[in-house]
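Notes from hallway chat w/ T.B., transcribed later so I don't forget. T.B. wanted the structure written out for a chain they're using in a teaching module, and asked if we could keep both sequence and structure tokens in one place. Agreed to drop them here.
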Amino acid sequence: MGNIVAIVGRPNVGKSTLFNRLTESRQAIVDETSGVTRDRIYGKAEWNGVGFSVVDTGGYAINSEDQFEEAIRQQVLIAIEEADVILFVVDVSTGVTDYDEAVAEILRKKAKNVIIAVNKVDNHSLIPEASYFYSMGLNNLYPISAINGSGTGDMLDHLVTLLPGKNREEDTELPKFTVVGRPNAGKSSLINTLIGEERNIVTPVSGTTRDSIFTQYNKYGHHFLLVDTAGIRKKSKVHEDLEFYSVMRAIRAIENSDVCLLMIDATRGFEGQDHKIFSLIERNRKGVVVLVNKWDLIEKDNNTARQFEAMLKTQTAPYTDYPVIFTSATEKKRIFKAMEKALQVYENKSRRISTAKLNEYLLPLIENYPPPANKGKYIKVKYITQLPASVPSFAFFCNLPQYVKEPYKRFVENKLRQKWNFSGVPINVFFRKK
């Protein structure tokens, strides 16, 4: 769970093309949510039944020349620190450049698992050229063509063997809550407030990934695992506020959890970075509670909280059914309310609704508001059932599923939310042929 593969390399070697090829098998599922983030730097991939996240570091290039080298160097260092496998992409048509050498040098010193993907080997006559890249002193070299896919199968066979296995022993029955958010939003204060005073109640759990500490929290009748990703590692050589760094950290934290507590800084509002993390949570189909922290620093009247919440939900639309809590971690205000909400969201995520109840409620509604006819063909929904899945997923069996459009799916999703409590949880709605 939570394996990350980072794609590194200089511009124009085909990183994005490779990224798209690796993620396209799952992309349809990943992007089933409407309103996902525009930037395609993060996706899910699967090979031989092993799932992993792919991060394209090229989405973060800084363009001015002097900063450029340094920025890429930073990215490579972050990728090494955060990823399980590095996919180093080079271009057979240019041969080894100084730039490739510089990246290779960093990788030789620091990285654990590196695969060199020699790209643009679009026909067999170019395979001998690819072997020149062995001169960089790294093994695991694969000639590939990201455009037509040749060679990528062998490369992926090797890649999945390098990913750490599921040697995790922590108690999976307990809900896992992760506090995520941009730097300085107050994540550490929140975690310290929760577990700081009574360390004896807290037992660290062994067998965890190298950069998430699972802490068992058991007091006031609440029992869950807190996945602490804040302040685990010493400030690395990397600037803490590097946007890319926060995203890499967030991805791993989100994947290791059931419910994410997204902390935003009330004094700064809901910024681009917050939105990006919210989208990652949604795209990973995890539960979410938004904590608006530092609320004690805001000048307030009777409407301030209501207006702030309305602004938030406008930004995250069409996904608006999630709890928002106004907290102050330093003043310990509404922290336990936040935990109660997280437990409620966890329950919502595991909610099962019987087929009888679903049909009794939804079929008459659908009869009154059927999906719009397409080319004179009418769509008839026969019955509805909940699928076994990690988030609430519903299959609507009908005669012409291909004609059901996004707005109608949203309509039935809203009806489900009106009737049952799915607050803070993404819902999957599928129309299928009987």
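Follow-up for T.B.: The first strand starts at residue 4 and ends at 8. Might be a good example for the class.
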